[in-house]
Amino acid sequence: MTFLRYGLVQLFAYGIDFGGFLLLMSVAGLAPLTANLVCKFAAGVFAFAAHRRFTFRVGDAGSSLGQGVRYFALLGLNIPLTTGLLALLLRWFSHPAVAKFMADVLILVFTYWVSKKLVFEQPRKPQDGPLK
């Protein structure tokens, strides 16, 4: 169920990311790599808040700073990884939107796993039993 919630939030975040990417390239005339950097950050801000509340249902306000630091560290890794992959894929795909979509899909599973295990994992209580 967590992965389904993650996917739903990612769809909204991807709307910000991909829609902004197309808009910044067509209206503002930004290059694909620059547009990607700007939109990844904007989508990341939205995704952090949504994943924290909806996906992983973290309610403890005391851990938000640590989670924020870990999430934006992950975003700091994700942005150059996907931008580098985008740059590589632009060599084979003439349309930037196709290359961006492929780069983002390739990074999705990695980002989910790191978010679940390292960013939003809550301390287990002794009565919780084995990990799920």
Task: Give an account of the 3D structure.
The protein has helices spanning 2-26, 32-55, 64-89, 96-119. The chain has 4 helices and no strands. The mean pLDDT is 87. The protein has one domain (2-122). With 132 residues, it is mainly alpha-helical. α1 (2-26) runs antiparallel to α2 (32-55), α2 packs antiparallel against α3 and α3 packs antiparallel against α4 (96-119). The N and C termini lie close together (12 Å). It comes from Rhodoferax koreensis. This is GtrA/DPMS transmembrane domain-containing protein. It is found in: Membrane. The chain crosses the membrane at residues 20-50, 71-92, 98-115. InterPro entries: GtrA_CellWall_Glycosyl, GtrA_DPMS_TM.
Give a quick precis of the structure:
By secondary structure, the chain is mostly helical.
Tell me how many strands there are. 0
Unreliable spans are none
Helix content: over 70%
Shape: elongated
Distance, first to last CA: 12 Å
- Mean pLDDT, as a whole number? 87
Annotation field: number of helices: 4
Number of domains: 1
Calculate Rg over CA atoms: 16 Å
Order of helices and strands: HHHH
Given the helix and strand composition, which structural class is it?
mainly alpha
Oligomer: single chain
Strand proportion? under 5%
Characterize the largest beta sheet: strand count, sense, and whether it forms a barrel.
Answer: none
Key attributes of the depicted protein:
single chain, 132 residues, mainly alpha, 75% helix, GtrA/DPMS transmembrane domain-containing protein, GtrA_DPMS_TM, membrane
